Amino acid sequence: MKAPLNPSLKTVLIVGSAPDALCVADWDTSFFAHRVVINNAWKIGPGWDCLIYPEDFPEARHPTLAQRQGKQLITAEEFVPEQNRYGGFVYAGGTMAFTAGYWALGALQPDVIAYVGCDMVYANLPGQATHFYGQGVADPLRQDVTLQSLEAKSVRFMALARQQGCAVVNLSAQSTSRLLFPRVGLKQLQKISLQGDAWPLYEMPLNVQAISEALQAEAQLAYMVPSGRYWEESSNFDKEKLSAIDDLWLLAADALAAA
């Protein structure tokens, strides 16, 4: 991996821990302004700039001092305030793929955010790898009131990013994904980033009315937990009302709806 270039568009890469995340080790990621890795994904190779992880990420899995020299570690102290700027964890979805996205959106102010290794589709066959390092816990699939629809949460992130002038795409080559972002290839994204024209990345129409209604419903419920530790107050959250908001976000992604 080469040192980052200075393309016309500020493009950020976010890397998760799915088996296909290993492809990043063979990529030229020099056109990315920042390369953000989640949890264990720093192990894929040294070509990362920011490592983001939750409070319960075991210290034994952290990079050594030498491995993180010149790099940035992003903890709850940094990502909770950024997450709260975009409505908080209850509405965003309490899993690191989305947390990393909102942190990058707020802290890095990019023109484009590109995901890979974050499809959140897990192998269900005995002995089949769920993560690039082997068997792992499918965190986004846990029973959690904020994760009833991963697809809806992905639409929410894409919609809020667009309001900020940031496109969100998925670089994954996998056949299925829980992320409803437009798919692009690495070479296509590099060309777009260097030319400075993000318009091709906004191909998926979004229903503006549904977005407005979803945000209004969130504001009315006012499920904000400033500490970020929303699970400590989960008994206060109405599952059905949150599911109804998810439905609005899914409607926002309906290409047949009036945008």
Characterise the protein shown here.
The protein is of the alpha/beta class and 259 residues long. It has one domain (11-202). It is 31% helix and 10% strand. It has a 6-stranded parallel beta sheet. Helix 6 (208-221) packs antiparallel against helix 7 (239-252).
- The chain-level structural class is alpha/beta
Largest sheet: 6 strands, parallel
**Helical proportion, percent range:** 25-40%
How many distinct domains? 1
Total number of helical segments? 7
Taking pLDDT < 50 over at least 5 consecutive residues as the criterion, the unreliable ranges are none
Kindly report the average pLDDT value. Answer: 88
- Tell me the strand percentage band: 5-15%
Q: Using DSSP, what is the number of strands? A: 6
Keywords:
259 residues, alpha/beta, 6-stranded parallel beta sheet
What can be said about this structure in brief?
The protein has helices at residues 76-85, 89-92, 96-108, 150-163, 186-195, 208-221, 239-252, and strands spanning 11-15, 34-38, 50-52, 72-74, 112-116, 167-170. It has 259 residues and is an alpha/beta fold.
